[in-house]
Amino acid sequence: MLVGPFSITSNRSAVFQATVPVRSISYTFIYRNPSLSWRNQIFQFLVTFDATTWALIFVSAAIVGASLAVLHRIKPGSTSYTLRLSLLFAFGYLFQGVRTRPPTYASSQILIIVWWLFCLILVIAFCANYAAFRSFNALENLPNSPITLLHQKYFKYAYIKESNMGYLMGKSLDSAIYSLYQMINTKFKYMIPNSRDEGINEVIKGKFALLDESPFSEYYARKYCLKSSPSLWFGTYVFFMPKKLSYGAIISEEIKKMRSDGTLEKIYKSEENKMMSTLPTYCGAMLEDQALGAMLNPLIDWSDYSVELATAVGIFIASLIGLLIVLITLLVEYLLGIYKEAMIDKDCHPVIL
């Protein structure tokens, strides 16, 4: 009697006689492709600095503007630097916009030179950080071996509880695979799913990778619009039979013939095609997924690091926010009467409209 196909293990080989390999299998992991949220995609030009750095930049601009106004008040020069104009100068130069005549005295001039140098270094740092961010997100940084999976920090990972894969990892002589097994049973022990469906649900939530064997990993990756990693390591399927079976050699020889003439491959392909034909042919059919996908289209496809539509949308939104601030300021000034025209009545008295 034959039993199988099963992956070959030392314990099974000790009790039963194995045939020649029937089929090669690969061990991979299923994951959800990491991506930025829509907020980070649109406003990704802001991630060059963290929130604290941005706050310190604006505080520095305010301090420079106030200092310039104080220096002008202590010793006024030919150019007027009131607090409002000083702040306008500091923030204007920060964004490479406003230019004005330099102050008269050396103390104020030195302050402006220091601020110019600060802005120059800031622009260089911004460009360097943004280029690094773009290149980092364009590169393929997914783990593709047991060692890289072991040392990455994005994914938590586990195999299915009491699965054959877990058993093989625990008995593996490969140090990297065995280290993965130890990591799962120590750091990620609470993440080990009781079933494949439970593991897939964790993968769908994100930041979790389910270690599984082919063809299950490919099938469920297609079924739930997930990703399947490159093969981490390989194994084989065999049939098991009682030891010292008289016709064991004949069975192995027939399996060799079926493998060489493609019969086994046709059988497996036929079953795989039946399963795959029931799976969705398109992923990301939801409107939100389509919108996020469209945001990743480059404006000009020069390279993998080209600026995407999301960045342009973010800059456009930032510009709209700026225009809204201008409109609010204009309305406040109007209500305060700043734009009221002075007119003269028939008695030559000024009339405020």
UniProtKB/TrEMBL annotation:
Keywords: Glycoprotein, Ion channel, Ion transport, Ligand-gated ion channel, Membrane, Receptor, Transmembrane, Transmembrane helix, Transport. Pfam families: Lig_chan. It is found in: Membrane. Signal peptide: none annotated. The keyword Nucleotide-binding does not apply. The keyword ATP-binding does not apply. Residues 51-142 form the Ionotropic glutamate receptor C-terminal domain. InterPro entries: Ionotropic_Glu_rcpt, Iontro_rcpt_C. It is a multi-pass membrane protein. It comes from the Eukaryota. Its main location: membrane. This is PBPe domain-containing protein. It comes from Rodentolepis nana (Dwarf tapeworm).
